[in-house]
Amino acid sequence: xxxxxxxxxxxxxxxxxxxxxxxxxxxxxxxxxxxxxxxxxxxxxxxxxxxxxxxxxxxxxxxxxxxxxxxxxxxxxxxxxxxxxxxxxxxxxxxxxxxxxxxxxxxxxxxxxxxxxxxxxxxxxxxxxxxxxxxxxxxxxxxxxxxxxxxxxxxxxxxxxxxxxxxxxxxxxxxxxxxxxxxxxxxxxxxxxxxxxxxxxxxxxxxxxxxxxxxxxxxxx
Amino acid sequence: xxxxxxxxxxxxxxxxxxxxxxxxxxxxxxxxxxxxxxxxxxxxxxxxxxxxxxxxxxxxxxxxxxxxxxxxxxxxxxxxxxxxxxxxxxxxxxxxxxxxxxxxxxxxxxxxxxxxxxxxxxxxxxxxxxxxxxxxxxxxxxxxxxxxxxxxxxxxxxxxxxxxxxxxxxxxxxxxxxxxxxxxxxxxxxxxxxxxxxxxxxxxxxxxxxxxxxxxxxxxx
Amino acid sequence: xxxxxxxxxxxxxxxxxxxxxxxxxxxxxxxxxxxxxxxxxxxxxxxxxxxxxxxxxxxxxxxxxxxxxxxxxxxxxxxxxxxxxxxxxxxxxxxxxxxxxxxxxxxxxxxxxxxxxxxxxxxxxxxxxxxxxxxxxxxxxxxxxxxxxxxxxxxxxxxxxxxxxxxxxxxxxxxxxxxxxxxxxxxxxxxxxxxxxxxxxxxxxxxxxxxxxxxxxxxxx
Amino acid sequence: xxxxxxxxxxxxxxxxxxxxxxxxxxxxxxxxxxxxxxxxxxxxxxxxxxxxxxxxxxxxxxxxxxxxxxxxxxxxxxxxxxxxxxxxxxxxxxxxxxxxxxxxxxxxxxxxxxxxxxxxxxxxxxxxxxxxxxxxxxxxxxxxxxxxxxxxxxxxxxxxxxxxxxxxxxxxxxxxxxxxxxxxxxxxxxxxxxxxxxxxxxxxxxxxxxxxxxxxxxxxx
DNA sequence: AATGAATGAGAGTTCATTCAT
DNA sequence: AATGAATGAACTCTCATTCAT
Lengths: 221, 221, 221, 221
Hints:
CATH topology of the largest domain in chain A: Tetracycline Repressor, domain 2
Helix content of chain A: over 70%
Distance between the termini of chain A: 99 Å
Oligomer: homotetramer
CATH superfamily of the largest domain in chain A: Tetracycline Repressor, domain 2
Structural class of chain A: mainly alpha
Largest interface: A-B, 51 and 52 residues
Strand content of chain A: under 5%
Shape of chain A: elongated
């Protein structure tokens, strides 16, 4: 006797349930969809419609969670920097300054290759959107760079590196790992897959040589 | 007596010539405007309308010189690769392999910083447009890479570099100069202007150390 | 006690229903406007903008209901063929083959004159758009022609018509009713209005004569 | 010594010569090109550019010979009606009214099938362009119709045709030949090629029967 | 007589975004 | 919380036409 209604209600609840997400979950859903689309298609080709379709909501719903398209990508960038910083912090437990700095480089490249979309968004692309924001948001990024400089300084203080210029040396190291990462991400198609691993390893070895270049100096004198 | 014909012919040639020059000039006009907008706003934000407005012509006029938007950017890319290759060729006159390779790196970074937009278009961005084209157009790019590999091999053959692996070493060097170039272009705002020159110089010195790393090895043994 | 649920359900169904009706209504709105413009101005002059203006919506709204301009006209054509076929089926209840065939002709011309735009779209125009479509959509049209051939055959079998060639006779009859219809639609302005009715009637009488032409044959022998 | 100039001049004259056309020739050239494009692509798809390209002149040149696009097609229509009328006049030498009228029908269909583009332009299409013109231009068309009516009247006066209504009978005959013609032109693809000739012949025979329908009447009484 | 250069007007279409429900 | 419906603004591109040369 009740069955008709009960069924209906249960069914509705079922549907409801599938969709019941708290704010955080829903936001993550949107962000994930946006990110997935981003690497495949680039910023301008990620449309609100496509995001909505991916998560099976209406476009209008997106706006309940994010002010606009920009905010979505801005949030993604922020999350990226946070994750990036966290992963880099992990090497700070290593005592030996040389080992620490080498590990730092490894972690950097690893992050880039394992989070291509984030890395692209954070360090490669230059959609003007991402530039006109409060400086504070770059802070985590700046923190990461400070970490690098710290680690470089430790090495220099311990007598490593030919140069004693922390700023320049840090930038050079950053350039190196960024070059490796971004080329693999953006021009990876130019390199046969079987080479890629080898190349990363070889590149990091060269990184080690740069750091260790002090002995050479002494001897040369 | 001949004057009539002569005048006519000369005048005609003059007109002809002027026309040719104008067409080329106009094309350059369009390309320049597109390029200027590109670095500022990114591919998708460069619209035919904006280009037209910049050069003070109507949008329809653009289509008298280029088939469509894609052709504009494709032409730019082609020009970029040509210029890039030509500049790199210039170092090949240097006999000493080490000096040559270092000069190669310098020229690379110099090109990138003096032609930011081209460099961006060629090596940083990844608008799908630029990928689905005749392979031939990438050839100049590939040629440049071959040049690098040649120069790396000369150094290795001369006993320089710790590693004997041309492929990996070349990629590492490319990564390095690409890293320097692209960070300065895209994240230059993170670095105070007065540092930039210094940083480039310092980075290139490190490049020299990498190449010279052989002596160190011998001695260590 | 149940009222709360019941109300809710009924209300929901109501809304659902209204939505469905509205969508269909809106589609019809668009189709009607397109059709109205079509007869007045021809396919190429029916623009999305004009349709939008006619129904007092924005151009973008049209795209919520139809994928593109082609789909609008394709839908119209389909509807036309369906209506056409349905109306023709109605004569099949008539037993007497001669009366049936004559009625068939009458229905044909009646459809054409009462649905000028449809008739134009279906049988007069030749916008290439309408030709490159799924063959299935022409099927209803083909079905109609089959119906005609069937009816012609019945008459021939019953000894009517001079010729025994179904194919040719059917085509001749089709030509006749098509000629009457299309001239009235397209060159109607050449004929004073007060004549039109008379003309149609007269033409259909001649049609009757063609069918009845058997007696003559008998006698001639 | 003179050779250089002479060559040039001769060459120029050569080019000149190839292009030297008097006004009439040039107009014909444009009209032919327009016509050729018309049947293939329809009025709206015949662009001035395409015409210009076909005749190897610049679009601007077209405007030296025709005020605008409309005038081109209007001229074509006028030419069509003239040709049409001339061909129909040819049957007037036939004395026997029945034979004359039958020949009239044959000539009509023959004209249509041999001048599909003209026929389309004159009797099938309905680009609004062609309607808003001076009534006078339709006169040749009207003349042709008058001819038909004359011939119909001759037959009726001679005791042929069941009906005595010239107007209606003429219209019916016109409908018939127009139906045959236009279906073959526009829906020809629905009919296998090997049938077409047969069909035309069969249709015209039926036309004969209609005209001859008097005997039947007499006998029936 | 012929045309290169230019453009206003307008086409189809897509998008981020809003709002009433 | 969710969305269907709607739209203004912008996009790329094409066309008939004009005009100075």
